Amino acid sequence: MRQEIRQWREESLDQVERDEEERAAGHFRSVLSWLKIDESEQLSICDSIFEEGSKYPGTCAWVTGHPKIRSWLQQKPDSPVVWLQGNPGTGKSIASGQIVKFIDNGHAFVIRHFCTYSHMASTKYDNIVRSLLSQLIRGNGELVAHVYQDCILNKKAPTITLLEQLICTLCASITEEPGKVRYLWIVLDGLDECEQNKQSRLLSLTNQIASKSASEGNTVCKVLISSRPSPTINKYLRKKQVVSLSEEMDQLNKSIQMYASQRLLSAIKRLRQLDLEREDIDELANNVATKAHGMFLYARLVLDYVTSNIFYTADEIKASINQLPPTLTEFYQKILTQMIQGLDSRSVDRVKTILSWVSFAKRPLKKLELLSAVSFGQGNPNIDRLVPPYILDICGPLMEERRDATLAFIHVSVKE
């Protein structure tokens, strides 16, 4: 009889626990609906960045060992804000992704947002605040309950002012044990790609989060901003800890050499037909790194060129690398010239049309959407078939299909 009672109690407790979990999950779904947030786009961006970092292991390992980043990563109130500063194509987003994964792998609490022109919604201030809020409350029943009771049951409208106040309050309240300090890391990448008139507001918000959590709660918030230099960002962050990639050329060159070596080794069967051995590949990788001068994107373009063209000898490869344009802009111009070389004026206009749609679409287009846009953009509403897909291949050197099946430029600098 006692055993039956004990079993009944255990089953009752299990049922209560399941009911509580279902109720909390329902409240969380209600909060997400109230926030009006679609998390799929940000997840797609993060997956792409994390995958790129994992594809070439070790190429950004130096960043978590940098003294200023290492200090910021420690569970100490020192160095609350760090600015990772660099020019286009220097690998800021990949480095930010590696920092996020490093914190996450250490089972610490990190929330992040990546801004990119290729997904315009990610650059909107309102969406950034909503993105950070949704990550903040995920898995924290007390925070979910607070938002549900205070905002949803009281039928408060999710105005941006309310959301700003809410994120400051919640960041100061994430600790689950009274008297115990908990650390929260926030990583914001591509701040310069955020709406120009909202960059100051976002920087002010991160400052409020860090200040309020330190003064009112048992939470220490540490913020990393990754961006290009700009007057607005300089004004807010020039007195903070700065990690300037332009001052880390030795580390960047080593990282690019490692990246180039891995890319070339992936084509080892082809290169060995040119009598290239491992030491020759290392020499080529060093040449690529020297030519790239700290720009991963430039190195990628050089390696794309090397692996897609026909060479008879190793000396031809070396000579071709030395003859490539010295700057990214000139490299793009060379690629574009090669793309349209031999095309008649009508075909050149069609290439311009394709690139214009990719440049000015409000969101990234999938292949069928782009083909439809090009087809109907000709002004004939009675077309009975779309333009052939092969036309997109001509723009392949400057465009790529992402994991979410959308087409985008290989880098934001192409659009610029």
What can you tell me about this protein's structure?
The structure is a single chain. This protein has helices spanning 2-35, 40-55, 61-65, 67-73, 92-105, 125-137, 141-152, 160-171, 199-216, 231-237, 249-265, 268-272, 278-292, 296-308, 314-323, 328-340, 345-360, 367-376, 412-415, and strands spanning 81-85, 109-114, 182-189, 219-227, 241-244, 365-366, 399-401, 406-409. Helix 9 links the parallel strand 3 (182-189) and strand 4. Helix 6 runs parallel beside helix 8 (160-171), helix 13 crosses helix 14 (296-308) and helix 13 (278-292) packs parallel to helix 15 (314-323). It has 416 residues and is α/β, with parallel strands linked by helices. The longest helix is centred in the N-terminal third of the chain and has 34 residues, at 2-35. The chain starts with a helix and ends with a helix.
The CATH architecture category of the largest domain equals 3-Layer(aba) Sandwich
Shape by Cα distribution: globular
- The CATH superfamily name of the largest domain is P-loop containing nucleotide triphosphate hydrolases
Strands, total number:
8
Specify the CATH class of the largest domain.
Alpha Beta
Share of β-strand residues? 5-15%
Overall helicity: 55-70%
Q: What is the CATH topology classification name of the largest domain?
A: Rossmann fold
The average pLDDT is 87
- Number of helical regions: 19
Radius of gyration: 25 Å
**Any low-confidence stretches, pLDDT <50, length ≥5?**
none
> What structural category do the secondary elements indicate?
alpha/beta
Number of structurally distinct domains? 3
Strand order in the sheet with the most strands: 2-3-4-1-5
H/E topology pattern = HHHHEHEHHHEHEHEHHHHHHHEHEEH
Spatial separation of the terminal alpha carbons: 78 Å
The largest β sheet comes out as: 5 strands, parallel
